[in-house]
């Protein structure tokens, strides 16, 4: 009996004593059997050394873990919460206004004689239009109706090359592409097309760590705020058909009006709330000519695509957004506006620039597997919004023989 007690005491002492060799206490990765395991699977407790081994140790396990994350997020979405009621109100207003606008017969903007002149190849000027035609032309220009004549832009995040974006460990870009084509440099039209079709570059200099920027712990709501910022980015680029460089100040103004996080320092607490606010602005009288709810759903799909591309693509998107805001701030200095208005706009743009830089540094430090999970959550929210729209019964009511609303840019 005394011997058993002595043995137990010796075992306890041995267990609590520090190891003589750190390597002896480390476990080899159960997948590759080559590296020391630094991580543990939250589901099956398997030890692994890297993201590659995590993905390979059990596809079923990783998919189930992601599904549980999405399920947990969905539990936060109550069927009668404020966001759902607000979205139903938005859809109701949007579809009723859409029906009212489609009640009248479409009238030709120009006379038959003028149309034939254009078809024959003859140029026309504003002087060739009657007062009524000038009025209709300006109305169509203001409403965005003429946008259907513009060739739709293919977003860079749908470019196959976006799947293989590479950045250095500190976030800076690895390779900066230099153009040596004299024709491209001398032709502003070609240069503009090259700018809007290429994948945006990453940070020009290494990104600082969050510990260098703040002593406080990052807010857990940054993921929600990121969704608001990405929506604003995609909205602005699609509204300008990819060419925000043509009007940086106008584009930055649009971006801040769409993003309540950047423009009004709002702090939405759920992804549902963040998307609802953005969609409400999209369906407002100011922007509803872009396509309203259908256009908004396409933007949510854009967010899913960018997140699915991974952290490097996300950092490039945020850097592109930073450059847009900075270009708008530079353009503001050349505009002839009042001192008070200039100071207010400049303050908002600088604040947005700082916020974008911080969230870029934060996104760079997040683990790679965070983005596919977030993409799935946003995709589930998108499906929920589409169900609300189809379930409201407003889209199909009384609109069998009426023309559909015009969409600024529609994907095929």
UniProtKB/TrEMBL annotation:
Name listed for the protein in its UniProt record: Uncharacterized protein
Organism expressing this protein natively: Avena sativa (Oat)
């Amino acid at each position: 009996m005394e011997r058993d007690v002595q043995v137990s005491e010796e075992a306890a002492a041995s267990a609590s004593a520090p190891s003589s060799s750190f390597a002896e206490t480390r476990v080899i990765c159960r997948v590759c059997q080559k590296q020391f395991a630094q991580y543990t699977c939250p589901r099956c407790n398997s030890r692994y050394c890297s993201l590659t081994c995590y993905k390979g140790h059990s596809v079923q396990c990783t998919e189930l873990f992601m599904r549980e994350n999405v399920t947990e997020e969905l539990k936060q979405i109550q069927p009668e919460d404020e966001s759902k009621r607000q979205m139903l109100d938005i859809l109701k207003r949007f579809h009723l206004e859409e029906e009212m606008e489609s009640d009248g017969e479409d009238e030709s903007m120009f006379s038959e004689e003028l149309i034939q002149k254009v078809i024959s190849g003859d140029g026309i000027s504003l002087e060739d239009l009657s007062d009524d035609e000038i009025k209709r032309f300006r109305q169509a220009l203001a409403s965005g109706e003429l946008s259907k004549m513009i060739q739709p832009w293919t977003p860079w995040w749908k470019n196959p090359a976006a799947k293989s974006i590479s950045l250095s460990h500190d976030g800076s870009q690895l390779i900066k592409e230099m153009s040596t084509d004299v024709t491209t440099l001398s032709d502003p039209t070609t240069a503009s097309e090259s700018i809007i079709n290429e994948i945006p570059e990453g940070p020009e200099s290494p990104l600082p760590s969050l510990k260098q920027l703040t002593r406080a712990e990052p807010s857990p709501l940054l993921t929600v705020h990121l969704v608001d910022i990405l929506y604003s980015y995609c909205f602005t680029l699609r509204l300008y058909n990819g060419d925000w460089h043509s009007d940086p100040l106008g584009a930055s103004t649009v971006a801040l009006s769409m993003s309540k996080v950047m423009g009004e320092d709002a702090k939405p607490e759920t992804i549902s709330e963040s998307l609802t606010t953005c969609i409400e602005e999209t369906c407002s009288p100011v922007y509803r000519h872009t396509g309203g709810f259908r256009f908004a759903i396409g933007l949510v799909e854009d967010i899913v695509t960018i997140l699915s591309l991974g952290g490097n693509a996300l950092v490039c998107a945020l850097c592109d957004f930073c450059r847009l805001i900075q270009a708008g701030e530079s353009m503001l200095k050349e505009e002839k506006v009042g001192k008070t208005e200039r100071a207010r706009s400049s303050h908002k743009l600088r604040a947005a620039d700082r916020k974008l830089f911080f969230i870029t540094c934060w996104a760079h430090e997040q683990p790679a597997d965070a983005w596919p999970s977030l993409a799935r959550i946003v995709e589930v929210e998108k499906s929920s919004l589409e169900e609300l729209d189809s379930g409201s019964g407003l889209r199909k009511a009384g609109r069998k023989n009426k023309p559909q609303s015009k969409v600024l840019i529609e994907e095929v």
